[in-house]
## 1
Amino acid sequence: MRERYGLNDPLWKRYFIWISGFVRGNFGESFEYKREVDELIWDRIAFTLIISVGSLIFTYVVAIPLGIYSATHQYKWSDHFLTFLSFVGMSIPAFLLALSLMVFAFDIFGVPLFGLFSSYYEGAPWTWGKLGDLFKHLWIPVIVVGINGTASLMRIMRGNLLDVLGQPFVQTARAKGLKEVVVVGKHAVRIAINPLISILGMSLPGILSGSAIVSIVLGLPTVGPILLRSLLNEDIYLAGTLIMMLSLLLVIGNLLADIALAWVDPRIRYE
Amino acid sequence: MDLTLEVPLRLSVFHFVSGYGCSLFFIKIGAKIQYFKNMNPTIEITAEVEDANDPWADGGQLSYRQLIWRRFRKNRMGVIAGALLLLFYILAIGADFFAPYHYNEINMRLRHVPPQRLHFSVEDGFYVHGLKSVRNPESLELEFTKNLAQRHPVEFFFKDAEGRRHLFSSTGPMFLLGTDRMGRDLLSRIMYGARVSMTLGLVGVFLSIVLGSILGTISGYWGGWVDNLIQRIIEVLSAFPDIPLWMALGAALPPGWSSIQIYFGITIILSIIRWGGLARQVRGKVLAYRESDFVMAARAAGAGHWHIITKHLLPGCYSHIIVIATLAIPGMILGETALSFLGLGIRPPMTSWGVLLEEAQRVTVLLHYPWLIFPAVPVLVVVIAFNFLGDALRDAADPYSD
C-alpha cells in the first residue's frame, strides 16, 4: 500500500514527483476515493467558477449603484443607513450568513436549501429543466458569498465618487448648466469607476475563500467540501491539487483583471 | 509678543524629543505663527483660546498624541466601539470571576437546556425558575420546561464548591443562554471563549506588525534587489486564497499538540498570510520619508542606518501601523472563527467562539436548539466594533488635516 503511493520516499522526492506530474496534468491518486484526482475535481471546479463569477457580477451590479446613491446623498439619513449596513455587511462572516439564511429558508419554505439541485435532478443528465433548477438554487450562495465584497466595494465607490465630485471639472459641468443626472452619470461616475476595476483582482481571493466556506455550510458540490474532507483525511494529493487549482484560478483572475483595466483605461497601458 | 516666541521654541523642543515630525508640519506651524503675528496680541488671543473648535487655540501646545486623542474623542461611534471592546476584554480576562460557571463544567442530565428568563421580585431579588424535564414521546429526547413552583435566587459574589468567587451564580441550575450538548453553560463558555478569540487577533496582528514593519522598512529603505525579492514574496502570498490555505496549514498542525501549542500555531498561520499588506504600507511610507529633508539632514550629520530607521523613519509610520493593525484584527478573529468552525482551528477542551459555533453547524441542530447560534452575536459585535474603532483611528491619525 505505502509502496503503491510512494509514501516511503522522502518528502522532497514525493513533492518533486507530484509537481512534475502536476505540470503534465497527472495530479496523482486520491487515497480516500481510490480514483485519479483528475476525475474528481473538474466538475467541482466548474461549479466553483459559476458561483464565484456569479457573486462577482452580483457584487458589482449591487455595489456600484448603492455607492453612487450613497455619495450623491451624502450625510442624509439614507447615506447613514447604507453606511451602517455596509459596516455590518463587512463584518458578518459568510458562513454565519449562510447558516442563518438556511434556517430562515427552512422556516419559510419548509425544505432545507441544501446543495445545488433538487433531489429530482441529482445525478440526472443535463437538461433545460436541470439548468433551471440549478439557477433556482444558485442565488443563495451567490448572494451570501457576494455580501462581504459588496459592502466594502460600496464604501470604496462612495469615497471615489465623493473625491471626483469635489473636483473642478464637475463644477464646470454644473456651471455649464448640465443636469445633475448627466453631471454624475456621464462625467463623475466614469472617473470614479476606474479604480474599482483594479480592485477586481484584489476581491478575487475573498470570493474564492468565501465560496469555499459557504459551500461547506450549504453542502454545495464545489471545491470547498471536498477540500475539507481531504484535509481531515490527510488525502494529500487531492488537497494539494485543489489548493493549487484555487491559486491558479486566482492568478488567472488577476491577469484578466489587469487586462480589463488596460482595456478600460488607456493611461496605464505600457508604451 | 511672548507667545510668538514661545510657540516655535516649544515645538522645536518637542520635535527633537519625540521625533514625530515632517516638513509639512513645519510649514503649517509657520503659517500659524504668521497668523498670530498679524493679530492684535492683547485681546484676540484670549478670544482664540476659548474657541474649542480651533485646534490651534492653545498655540499648538498639545502634543501629537493629545491632538490625536482630541480628534478621536469627537467621533462618537469610535469612542463607543472602543469602550465596548475594553469591556469585552475585561470580561474575557476576568472570566474566572465574571462567568457563573467554569467552561468545562459538564452536566449530562441538563443537556440542551433552553435559555432561562431572569425574573425579579422584591422578596427574592433576581431569580430563575427551576427546571422540569419531560421526555418527548416522538424523539425520546429530554425536553425542559420551567417549573413555576421552584425559584433559584441569583446570588452575587457567589462562592462555589471549590471556594472560587463568581460575580453571580446560583445554587440551582441557572443557564441564562442555555446549555450545549454536554450541559455546559453557554454564557460561561462564551466568556471563556472570548479569551481565545479576542487575544488571538491581538497576538496575530502583533506578529504581523513585527514581520511587516521589519520587512517593509528593509524593502523601502534599501530598495534594489532586496525590495524586489520581498515584493515578489508578498505577491506570491497574496496569490493564495486565504481560507483554503489556512485550512491546509491548520490541518497540518500535529494532532498531538497541546492546546497552547495549537493556539500559537493558529496565530502564526493567520499572521503568516496577513503581514504582506502591512509590509506594503510601511514600505510606501518609508519610501516617501527616505527622500525627505529631515532624513537628508540626519544623514548629512553622520547618523547611521539604524539611527535613521528607528529615530526618523519608524516614528512617522506609527500612526499608520496602528490604524492598519486595528483594521486587521477583525480579519484575524473571523479567520480563527472560520477555522475552528470547520474543526481545523482551536481544538477542545480549549474553547473559542468558533468552537462553540461548530456545534451549530447543522441546520437540524439549529432548528431544535436555536440558542446555540448565540456565540455569533459577540463575534459580530466585536468585529463591527473593531471596524468602527479602526475607522475612527484612521480619521484621527492625521490630526493636522481638516
## 2
Amino acid sequence: MQMKREEITEKLKDILISASDDPQTAEKCTDDSKLQTELGMTSVNMLYTVIAIEETFDIRFDDVTVSSFETFGDVVDYIEKKLS
Amino acid sequence: MKNAKNRKNKLFSPEYFWFDFVKLTAAPGILWFRPKKLYESEAAKKKIKGPAILISNHIGTIDPMYLMLVIWYRRHRFICKSELMSSKRGAFWLKKFRCIPIDNGDMSFTAMRQITDVLKNGELVSMFPEGAVHTQSDTPSSFKSGMILMSLQGGAPIIPIYIKPRKHFYERITAVIGEPFSVTEKYGERPKFSQIDEAAKLLHEKEMRLMQICNNYKNKKETDENG
C-alpha cells in the first residue's frame, strides 16, 4: 500500500489526538517534536501508540524498543519505510 | 480430539516439565506452608480459568513461589526483569521456568507481543507491577502501567493479590485475593493515555484495600489469641 508522507502524518496525528487528553496535541505534532519531552509520551504510551499504528496501517513493527524513536518524524519515517 | 489433547496437556506438558517437577517435589513443603487465603468478596473466590494476569506486591525474591502456592492449580508464566537473564545460571533457570524477560525502562515491542500471545493462548501471566522488590514497608509502592496494555491486548482480566510478609520463616503466609478487574469493561477497548495511568492507580488502591483486609484479619486473630 502506497501512502504519501502527509497522509501518514495525518493518520498518526489522529491516533495521538484520540488517545491524548491534551487539546494542543495536533499543533505539537511536527516532524521535530520530541516524543518524550514535547509530546509527553511515556514508554507505555509509546507501546500503546505502536499497537494502534499496527492496526491502522496494517503493518508489523520489528524488534525495536521504545527508545528507538526520538521524534514524531522518526515514527513517520519508520511507517513510510514499512509501507514502501 | 482437541479436548482430549487439552486434558492431557493440563496433566503433563514437556514445556512445563521444570515447573511441574518443582511443584511435585516440593509438595510436602507446599502442604506445610500452604497459605492462609482471604478473599475480597465472593466473586474473588471463583477459580481462575482462562487467560488472566496475576499481580502482587513484591516483598522478596521468593514471591514467585508464594504466588505459585496461592494459585496452585494453574501454571504461571512469570514476567521478570531482563537483568536477571544476564548471568548464565539465571538465564538457564528462568528459561526452564518459561519466564518472560522485559526491560523495565525500555520495553521492546517483541516482549509485549510475546506476553499478548501467551494470554491469547489462555495462559496465566504473573507479575509484580512495582517493578522491583520493595522491603521498606508492608505498603506496596506505586504500580507501573504496562499491565494495563497487556490486559487490553491479551483480553485478560487483572487479578490483584496481596501477600503479607512473614515475621518468622516457619509461619504460614497470608494472602488476600481480589476481584478480577477488567480494563475493557471499565474504559472500553481504546482508553486514553490518562485512563491507562488511572487504571494502574485504581489497581494500586485495590491492593491497599487487600492489605487492609489482611491487617484486620491479623489484628483480630491476635486479639482473639490474647483473650
